[in-house]
Amino acid sequence: MELQAVEKSQAASSINNASECAKKIENEGFPKDFPATTKFANSEFPFVIIRLDRIIQNLSWIARSSRAMTILNNFMQRSAVPATTFDLLLVRRGETDEVKRQRNGIIKTMRVYLNGKIVDSRDAVVSVFDHGFLYGDGIYETMRVYDGVVFRLDQHIRRLFRSASLIGLSIPLDVDRLRIAIYETLIANALRKAYIRLTVSRGRGPIGLDPSLCAEPTVVIVAQELKEYPGSLYKNGIHLIISETRRNSKEAIDPHIKSLNFLNNILAKIEAKKKGAYEAIMLNVNGHLAEGTISNIFFYKDNMLCTPSAECGILDGITRGVVIELARTEGMRVREGKFTVKDIYAAGEVFLTNTTMEVMPVSNIDDRRYTVGSVSKLLRKLYREEVNAYISDVKAEGPSLWGENQ
User: Fold this and answer.
1) Cβ atoms < 10 Å from Cβ of 53
2) Is 250 in contact with 277 (CB distance < 8 Å)?
3) DSSP label at 121?
4) Do residues 96 and 108 touch, judged by C-beta distance below 8 A?
5) Is residue 277 within 8 Å of residue 241, measured between CB atoms?
6) 238-242 and 358-365: which strand pairing?
7) Distances from the Cα of 207 to the Cαs of 132, 135, 210, 364, 387, in angstroms?
8) What is the pLDDT of residues 96-138, one digit of tens each?
9) Catalytic residue list contains 258
10) 296-301/349-354 β-pairing
11) CB < 8 Å & 24+ apart, contacts of 227-230
12) For residue range 126-137, what is the model confidence (pLDDT) as tens digits?
């Protein structure tokens, strides 16, 4: 069987037998007609490598073969490709000690995924007639990357597709291709610790609310280096207010939709900033606690960990779900329900959760003060342990860039 050096997914489809491919590469090395170094300046590089790597690992061959590691390592050296790219791929094998290198500054400009292509950020342009821009008609997800691995990737993708189904939006990528696009963007920016924003809008179309005016959705993936929250915030807590801006009624817009239309939250955020607060807690139309502008809320009262239920009109945050699981596993009593401002004012501890801040303690709500107590500290510790365990498990599975269940 001859291994053809063709572009993108054709490299995978041209190989019918993964075992033969692996043996051929091990015995003969990469073919001479493999894409030239000049090709590696664009998005084709990470995709080709990922696809070939995927084929090789189908029988766990790459994970067992030091010869294979040497071949790949030599190939990367003679091709003068970004070292961090190869290092990121190898993270999923648990082989970083063998090939770990320093970043060499090759990646200088942010690269963005836009409708199937990786482009420079200055070229990542969306039409002024895009309905995401005109009407906020679209959905998004934010994800956090630890040591080259996207935490709870499949859960984020499932939630994205749920949001899409609730607004009648057809995402032009299937789940596998979306995973590839996310990692392709991450690799193109040579990032190991990052924030990822995935946006899908209704797309470009004439002015008008009718979704059928848009022929094709717009898909954008941005990967940025994550700047950690200051340690002082976790040590001392943050200041919140109870916002006068009420959360949108769940009968008006389903809170399960992670929508681009964020004006409701923005108004509450403006209110918080005017009062010198870090974040605002929004109540629903019935006066019950709902959520923050970008976070879920927890409080500890009467030996019970409490958080507003989905019935209160909240987005069911992925971090929120992890914290609830951890608390219950630890033996804590957890109540998801309807709570008032009076309930949270009487609490001993309060904290927020979201993808980037993880578990963030609260020091003040309006004029009410709280201690950064043992429950917040414990759950933050347990959360980070859960992250570390997840990353280790993903790496142990081998060189798969497709998600946690592959």
Assistant:
1) 21
2) no
3) G
4) no
5) yes
6) parallel
7) 11, 10, 9, 45, 44
8) 333 333 334 344 589 999 999 999 999 999 999 999 999 999 9
9) yes
10) antiparallel
11) 229/356, 229/357, 229/360
12) 999 999 999 999
List phi, psi (to 5°) of 255.
-65, -10
Distances 16 to 56, 70, 129, 398 between C-alpha atoms, Å:
12, 24, 44, 21
Structure tokens given for 178: 């979306």
The pLDDT, as a whole number, for residue 73 is 52
DSSP state letter for 82: -
Q: How far, CA to CA in Å, does 11 sit from each of 34, 49, 56?
A: 10, 9, 12
Q: Which two three-digit tokens encode residue 103?
A: 């970043």
pTM across the whole model: 0.74
DSSP secondary structure of 147-205: TTEETTHHHHHHHHHHHHHHTT---SS-HHHHHHHHHHHHHHTT-SSEEEEEEEE--B-
Q: Which two tokens stand for residue 166?
A: 């609730």
- Per annotation, catalytic residue among 24, 39, 235, 258: 258
Tokens of 15: 């190989």
150, amino acid identity: V
